[in-house]
Structures are given as C-alpha cells and as structure tokens.
TrEMBL record:
It comes from the Bacteria. Residues 135-289 form the GFO/IDH/MocA-like oxidoreductase domain. Residues 8-126 form the Gfo/Idh/MocA-like oxidoreductase N-terminal domain. This is Gfo/Idh/MocA family oxidoreductase. Keywords: NAD. The keyword NAD applies. One of its GO terms (molecular function) is nucleotide binding. InterPro entries: Gfo/Idh/MocA-like_OxRdtase_N, Gfo/Idh/MocA_oxidoreduct, GFO_IDH_MocA-like_dom, NAD(P)-bd_dom_sf.
Length: 400
C-alpha cells in the first residue's frame, strides 16, 4: 500500500446511518486520519467518541470548519446536505457529500454553484458507480456486446423498506422529498451512467399502498435502525412501531426520456419479501440482465435471436469485494481522498448527482399530480463545463 508522507486530516459531519464510512477514512499512517467529528445529537457524538477515541468530538460546525482539516465527509440527513456542504466548500475544505446531493433541485444547484465559485473540490457519494454488478454491466456495454443502448429498465425490490424508511426521518417529505429521490437517486444515476445520458423528461405514478394503514406508530427519535431491524418483521401489514408521520409513497414507478433518446423506467417497491435490484439493458444487438446484485450472483447476456425463452449466450459472475456494498464503499472513500489530495477525474460526477436529484424531484411532483410529464431544467453551461472537465484548478485571478 502507498504510504503518504503526511496523513490527510479528515472531518465528519453527521455520525448516523452512513457513519460506517469512517473506517475507510481513518487509517493513521496510511494516508488519512479522522481528526474531528461534528454531530448535533448526543447519540451521534457518543457513538463517534466510542469508535474514534482519538478524534475531537463537537456539536459546533464552526469548530470543525476552523480545525485545520483537509477534507470532510458530509453524512447528515439529506435535507441538511446543502446547509453543511455550502459552508465546508466556502471554508476551502474538499467536500464529500453523501447522496442524494440534496432533496431539492435548488439546493443541489446551490452546492454546485458554491463549488464552482470557490474552486473547492466537491465529490458526491454515489457508491453504486463502484459496485461490481454495475461496473461489470458497464464494461459489457463498453465492449459493444449488446450494440447501442436503447432502453434500460430497473426493478428495485426494497425488501427492507419498512425497517429502513418508514420508522425514522425518511418517512417525511420535508426530509427526503420522496423515496424516488432518496432511495432512487442511486438507480437513476446508474441508469444515466449506463445509458450515457441524462433524463430530459420524466413522469411517474405512485402510492402509499401498505404502510399508511399500519396503525402501530412510535416516536423512534432516540433509536437507530439497528434497534428495530429484523427479518421477522413480516408481513409488511404487520410491521410494528412505524413513524408517527408517513407522507411518502411505498410504491412508485417512473418513466424517463433521456437527452440522447434512450428510454428508461424505474420501479421501486418497499414491501417485497426479497431485497435486490434487477437491471435490464437492451441494445441494438442484444440485452443484459442481472439476477441478484451481490457477489456470486449472475449477469446474463443474450446476443442470439431465438423463438422463445432461451438460455443466455454468456453468464458472468458478479465479483466480490470487502468493505460494504461489494467493495464499493472503500473504493468510494479511496477515490474521494485521492481526489481531495490530488484532484483529477473521478468515476462519480457532481453533474450526474444533480441530474439524479432533478429526475427524482420531478418524478415525485408528477406522481403527486396527475402523472403528466415534467421537463428537467438544464444545468448552467459554465457549471456543466467546469465539472465535466474534472473541476480544474482555477487561477488566482479567476477565483477572486
């Protein structure tokens, strides 16, 4: 392993559900060390103190901003991303913002504009761009195995939906806008990446079909998901201790027209018995479909015409990788830390992160209206050029 002469000093804001990323950033003597953690909750601060005893713990963001850190992981609830990231970017601290970028288009655009204006490096945590199933499917596309991509369908069976999203802050629109955005931002981004285009027009339908009628409610504010998660929480209609307020959908379906003509659809259900994503990518010479999305599962490729169902022409095993999400999480943090230190191009993209937010926001608007299509507002040309160029360093004159 390459040992840097000097460890990057890393801060963390928000020590909650995604706090496990600290393990990949806290490697004293190997390139990076978490030196300070900021969390407004007593539990978050206590958890951080227990896991990273050497780090300074604070509830004051100003203390973190003035602590001399080189990089920061913003892991707060989604609707606080811009509130924090704008300040870390203005402080000149290379910023990792967990996905989604934020829960409104305006907030997402504010983050991009701030990174552009300050020249501070911005990275968004779309870890699925490092997941083996996605990387391997993209490689098949790049190799031309199925010709030119024309359609992508994604079915997302969120078997843990009742435990993950309907018992805490995720259950309210004010915090997440919708689960098409909060949860779907991953898949929308993957669809964009595989299709090499961004959503231009979107429409959707959805409903709170199951969890809205569950009468057992609770204030879970002092708890974490690990306190209530269990495969025994089944069937969905018999879930216990759901959040007092639920105003998001538990089943949603969106259709997308991309700017390069590719057609895509994304279906998300939070009360399935199984939990995985199924992608179908159809090109001019064949199609790809994954069966399971974890290590050892299969990607199947059809490239021969048949008169009915046929076994695939090729089967690729999904690779393994340690450290969360098939190895995606350690790769994600390693890429961010390299980017924070050296700059350069990255596999994730702030523009793509904004476009995933925009598609999710407008899909929610469509499904809560009459299902009619919504047009995605364009990213300003100067921002598009800057981020597509890999956030090149600005001269002192331009930074003024």
């Amino acid at each position: 392993m390459h040992i840097m002469e000097k460890d990057l000093k890393v801060g963390i804001v928000g020590f909650g559900l995604r706090a496990g990323l600290w393990r990949h950033a806290h490697k004293p003597g190997q390139g990076s060390e978490v030196t300070i953690v900021c969390d407004t909750s007593e539990r978050g601060r206590a958890d951080a103190a227990e896991r990273i005893p050497s780090a300074r713990i604070t509830a004051d963001l100003e203390e973190l901003l003035g602590s001399g850190i080189d990089a920061v992981l913003v892991l707060t609830p989604d609707n606080q991303h811009a509130a924090v990231a704008v300040r870390t970017l203005r402080a000149g601290i290379a910023t990792f913002c967990e996905k989604p970028l934020d829960v409104t288009i305006e907030a997402a655009d504010l983050i991009l504009q701030t990174a552009y204006d300050t020249g501070t490096r911005l990275y968004v945590g779309h870890n699925m761009r490092h997941m083996p199933v996605v990387v391997q499917m993209r490689k098949l596309i790049e190799e031309g195995r199925i010709g030119e991509v024309k359609a992508i369908w994604c079915r997302h069976f969120v078997g843990h939906g009742g435990d993950y999203y309907f018992k805490d802050w995720h259950s309210e629109r004010k915090n997440v806008t919708s689960l098409l955005l909060q949860k779907g931002a991953h898949d929308i981004d993957v669809i964009h990446w595989l299709a090499k285009g961004y959503t231009q027009r979107v429409s959707a339908v959805g409903d709170l079909a199951v969890y809205g009628s569950v009468t057992t409610r609770s204030d879970n504010s002092g708890k974490r998901m690990g306190d209530w998660y269990s495969l025994a929480n089944w069937p969905p209609s018999e879930q216990q201790d759901l959040a007092a307020t639920i105003d998001i959908e538990d089943i949603s379906m969106m259709n997308m027209v991309l700017d390069n003509g590719v057609l895509a659809s994304y279906q998300q259900c939070h009360f399935t018995p199984d939990y995985w994503r199924n992608y179908t990518i159809i090109g001019t010479k064949g199609r790809i479909e994954n069966f399971g999305d974890g290590p050892g599962d299969k990607i199947k490729v059809w490239t021969t015409r048949t008169s009915g169902f046929a076994e695939p022409d090729d089967v690729i095993e999904i690779q393994d990788g340690g450290g969360g999400h098939g190895g995606a999480d350690p790769n994600l943090i390693a890429e961010f830390l390299r980017f924070a230190a050296e700059g350069g191009r990255t596999q994730t993209s702030p523009i793509a992160a904004r476009q995933a937010v925009a598609a999710g926001v407008l899909a929610a608007e469509s499904l809560r209206g009459n299902g009619s299509a919504r047009e995605v507002p364009a990213v300003p040309a100067d921002l598009m050029g800057y981020f597509n160029a890999g956030q090149p360093a600005k001269s002192p004159e331009l930074a003024l």
